[in-house]
Specification:
Layout (H helix, E strand, L loop, with lengths): L1 E3 L6 H4 L3 H21 L8 E10 L17 E10 L10 E10 L8 E8 L9 H9 L2 H10 L1 H10 E2 L9 E2 L4 E4 L5 E10 L36 H11 L4 E11 L4 H8 L12 E12 L2 H6 L11 E2 L11 H17 L6 H8 L30 H40 L4 H28 L7 E3 L3 H19 L8 H9 L3 E2 L6 E2 L11 E3 L4 E2 L4 E2 L2 E3 L5 E4 L2 E3 L4 E2 L4 E2 L4 E2 L4 E2 L4 E2 L3 E3 L1
Parallel strand pairs: 14-16, 15-17, 16-21, 17-22, 18-23, 21-24, 22-25, 23-26, 24-27
Antiparallel strand pairs: 1-27, 2-3, 2-11, 3-4, 4-5, 4-6, 7-9, 8-9, 8-12, 9-10, 10-11, 13-20, 19-20
Helix pairs in contact: 2-9, 4-5, 11-12, 11-13, 12-13
Length: about 600
């Protein structure tokens, strides 16, 4: 597993398996593209909202003591009503929504404790996020065939539709569970419901009778020809009710059940396509909501409801697979967050942007205001241009130094051992073929020592995070030393790779390597920037692996240095590449031919 420490993933995404991540990524990318295009919500596009209070009853029978939903407490709330698909005519048949935000009861605090998205209808038409994605992409014929074998899905679709004269006359259901933790340590699954305070409006208020297998696309259902009401009469009605002396009143109800002990029973309890039996799990009335203040249309449009908002007492039920019932609530929270950022022109975190980039749907951020923070200015002065004297040096002096100086230095190194060898040959009876191995070994050791000395003279010690200009004297000296290192490696030191001698050589050049405790390095690619390499005991680097301790970042013509750490027992495979800042954790493995990007953690 490779984890990037500079672009941390949302923990909701990290928990997902590969298929779950792909499904949510494709959904998020599709909805993100639509959001950028219309600069509005995909579902529940327009709505009306108001502020008020939630006052909990003093006596809630059968409900254990809870920190938030405790007797007598009072909270500020916001309620936003909307249609699911119809954004231009309230007379169309459509599921109606009520998003509820419960704010902290602390004075002058606008912190949200809980965001709930409720709708008409006792159930939802998709059990999992995988089912929801499939439903979106399949045609009407496939949907009708599906509900023949799952009639409760058909019933959920029809039951969600409402034809009404007022948002305040409908019942709204959460469909999805939350996990409540009570003061006595017990846990329960809980569903939420809003009902009108006036009991004359029962659960079937505004119900639409079934006329076919499935309802048509609700956004395209025309209003009755004889219906002369204004296009947005539900919006007007809600505003007039809030502004009246009677205000708008709801009763908040909770439906709860014990958390099952086995996984199968949990899946059944969390299945949002099948409502709980109200005889076995009756709704308990816990408080009253009064809406007495309107929000402007602009304030309503900017509202961001976060279904993943949670605390220890009211938690979200997690999922790791797109086939689990909890995946719908878990997965949609990511889609909501991404689309809300785009809709309100907020910069998209890099982790979410990379998440979208990995989907099968490519999102075009061109022209999107939030993308501006990610773009570089086009009118910046070029940083790679060189004056004439630098060009002359790069074309003449630099190549000469990179070729002539290393061989001149090697000639100087070889001279003394060669003289000794010839002297012994002339004054002893030993044949030359017995002396040559000693000559090559001694000259190779001297070459390695000279290379280490040249490293400190020409390059010095680079520090982690240090930056230097790409055309600076320091980089020129580094390229000369790299030429010396290459020649010395080909002459002798590369032959010693994998041995204690090679580890000791790296130590002399500034590497933090446990050469005497089993550290193993089998290649010259580990000494590109020796002082940027740290290898703990039993750490190993395979043949031809490259450890880049530097990188050109393209900003102001700078080269930046970063340390590569291989912790105890860590392994870098043959021909793998590690960029600056990479950390291979204890017994971590960067497989052969793999790439670890900047600041990634390899486990």
């Amino acid at each position: 597993m490779v984890k990037n420490t500079t672009h941390l993933l949302d923990d909701r995404i990290e928990e997902m398996d590969r298929k779950y991540r792909k499904v949510v990524g494709n959904l998020a990318a599709n909805f993100a593209a639509a959001t950028i295009k219309v600069q509005a919500r995909y579902f529940h596009r327009i709505g009306t909202a108001g502020k008020g209070t939630l006052r909990l009853y003093e006596n809630i029978p059968g409900f254990p003591e809870h920190k938030i939903f405790s007797s007598g407490k009072c909270y500020p709330v916001i309620v936003r009503h909307s249609n699911c698909l119809s954004s231009d005519d309230d007379a169309r048949l459509d599921p109606r929504g009520a998003a509820l935000r419960i704010l902290s009861d602390e004075s002058k605090s606008s912190t949200s404790l809980l965001d709930l998205t409720l709708k008409t209808g006792r159930a939802f038409h998709a059990r999992t996020i995988g089912d929801f994605a499939t439903w979106l992409v399949c045609g009407a014929a496939a949907r009708e065939e599906h509900v023949k074998h799952a009639p409760h899905i058909r019933d959920a679709m029809w039951d969600s539709l409402r034809k009404t004269n007022s948002y305040a006359e409908l019942h709204y259901y959460s469909n999805i569970c939350r996990l409540f933790r009570f003061k006595d340590g017990s846990e329960m699954y809980v569903k939420f419901k809003l009902r009108p305070f006036d009991e004359q409006f029962n659960e079937d208020s505004g119900k639409v009778e079934r006329t076919g297998i499935l309802p048509p696309e609700t956004g395209a259902i025309p209003r009755d020809e004889n219906d002369k009401r204004p296009l947005l009469f539900l919006d007007d009605d809600f505003k007039s009710r809030v502004n009246s002396h009677e205000k708008v009143h709801y009763v908040l109800q909770l439906q709860f059940r014990q958390v099952p002990n086995d996984e199968v029973a949990c899946e059944i309890a969390l299945d949002c396509t099948k409502p709980w039996d109200e005889k076995e799990y009756p709704y308990v009335e816990v408080g009253e909501i009064t809406i007495d203040q309107l929000l402007t249309n602009e304030e309503s449009a900017k509202l961001e409801f976060n279904p993943f908002l949670k605390c220890n007492e009211v938690d979200v039920i997690r999922a790791t697979s797109c086939s689990q019932s909890a995946s719908l609530d878990h997965g949609r929270s990511i889609v909501y967050s991404i689309c809300q950022h785009l809709r309100n022109n907020k910069p998209l975190p890099e982790s979410w942007r990379k998440f979208l980039d990995q989907s099968d749907v490519k999102v075009n951020f061109t022209g999107c205001p939030m993308a501006k923070v990610m773009e570089k200015e086009d009118n910046q002065k070029l940083t790679l241009t060189r004056p004439w004297h630098q060009n002359l040096w790069m074309m003449s002096g630099q190549p000469l130094l990179q070729t002539a100086l290393p061989y001149f230095l090697m000639g100087m190194i070889v001279f003394a051992p060669l003289n000794v060898t010839m002297y012994i040959k002339e004054h002893n009876t030993l044949q030359l073929h017995w002396l040559l191995p000693m000559f090559w070994f001694s000259s190779g050791i001297l070459a390695g020592l000279a290379c280490a000395l040249a490293k400190w003279v020409l390059v010095g010690r680079k520090k982690e995070g240090e930056t230097v200009m790409i055309w600076s004297i320091g980089i020129y000296m580094d390229t000369i030393w790299q030429a010396i290192r290459t020649l010395v490696g080909e002459y002798f030191m590369e032959m010693t790779s994998g041995s204690v001698l090679f580890g000791l050589w790296m130590k002399l050049m500034g590497s933090d390597i446990s050469w005497d405790q089993g550290a193993y390095v089998d290649g010259m690619g580990a000494v590109l920037n020796p002082e940027m390499v740290s290898i703990e005991r039993y750490g190993s680097v395979g043949r031809e692996a490259l450890l880049f301790g530097h990188i050109y970042e393209g900003e102001d013509g700078k080269v930046k240095f970063g340390k590569i750490k291989i912790k105890e027992g860590g392994f870098v495979g043959s021909r793998a590449v590690a960029m600056p800042g990479v950390t291979v954790e204890n017994e971590g493995c960067l497989a052969a031919l793999s790439l670890a990007m900047k600041a990634e953690i390899v486990k």
